[in-house]
């Protein structure tokens, strides 16, 4: 019997959990739109089908997370279509559009891997609804990562240097998403995350390192710049760009006329 209750949490712990889940959900919202926008850049019919399929499952993940966030007093309608650009907590890795196919693969791979690493910390969460949701999303992301593994194998075989250049440029921004206050892990301290955030960040680095090893490339740089505008709560610097907000914002049917 699951007798866990969010109401039993201290207000600051509850707020931290809400913000962390919102950061994952909003990142997946933007990533889903990346998949849709970049589908026409696919190199083959399987790419088109794969990207549209990943967009569909990603949107489903977003809506499931938004529904769970209703337990924190959030309104689903507000989360999905009632917020402005400065209220979106997506990873700023996705703020800049991909400049090439290699850049798309590198960036979206990092976003998928990072969000999965973060969610994996909730696989043993005392709320079975959240642990089950994390498990289900993880099963879906597994297949997304297979898509990237296939393309990275192609880049390795062809000796494509552009992919590593893109990965080098994007990786520090993805790493920054895990924050710079790893010694203040309220969720782990209160039994809400089964893996400390510092270990989750290290696990993310380990997964990206495997990519570098496949290319026989030099090790990754963990030199992360936390700019003056870094927001630890939203896990991003600054606000979502207006141009990206216009793409991801919910278009109400009534507003289309």
UniProtKB/TrEMBL annotation:
It comes from Cycloclasticus zancles 78-ME. This is Uncharacterized protein. One of its GO terms (biological process) is phenylacetate catabolic process. One of its GO terms (cellular component) is cytosol. PANTHER family: 1,2-PHENYLACETYL-COA EPOXIDASE, SUBUNIT C (PTHR30458:SF0), PHENYLACETIC ACID DEGRADATION PROTEIN PAA (PTHR30458). It comes from the Bacteria. SUPFAM superfamilies: Ferritin-like (SSF47240).
